[in-house]
Amino acid sequence: MAAVLVRDYPELYAALGVHSGVPAGLAHDVYSAMRLMSDGPVPSDVDAAPHAVDGAGANVASIVFHGDEDTVVHLSNGVAVHEGAGGSEDHPPLDTRQTTTQPRPGHRGFTRSVEYGPSGVTARELWIVHGAGHAWAGGSSAQPDTDSSGPDASREMLRFFLQHQLSA
Q1: Containing domain of residue 27, as a range?
Q2: CA distance linking residue 75 with residue 122, whole number of Å
Q3: Which of 16, 89, 111, 113 is deepest in the core (most CB within 10 A)?
Q4: Comparing C-alpha atoms, which of 117, 76, 113 is closest to residue 95?
Q5: What pLDDT, on a 0 to 100 scale, did the predictor assign at position 54?
Q6: pTM of the shown model
């Protein structure tokens, strides 16, 4: 839903956060939604709806989390959300960095790709959580649908959102 709102109303948002989601505009019914979730976007999806991924909220900063063992929503969806938001030809990233944090007891490893914009603030981030399925990274192990051994997605999204604000 966040990706849909940013695609349709980019002037209202300074930043987009998506966890284990799909790109906006590539599913049009239950069947296509289920296929998109399980298989990820295919070129014919993107070709049929180029506005859905490319340029969707192009000037809105984005942070995306996705588990690389998610069997509900294919990892390629998170990558497509990341690639389709937060950048444009008019505002290319100045610097791109990728770091991998190795797992340690009780904590999952992850790969974080960061693109920095003109002001040195992160424009886009993609967090791929290694060994994680379809669950919110971080949080309480007492709660369903969370993975307490993952990086704290809530904290990282809040950090990211606090870096961005709409111009007055």
Answers
A1: 2-162
A2: 22
A3: 16
A4: 117
A5: 44
A6: 0.88
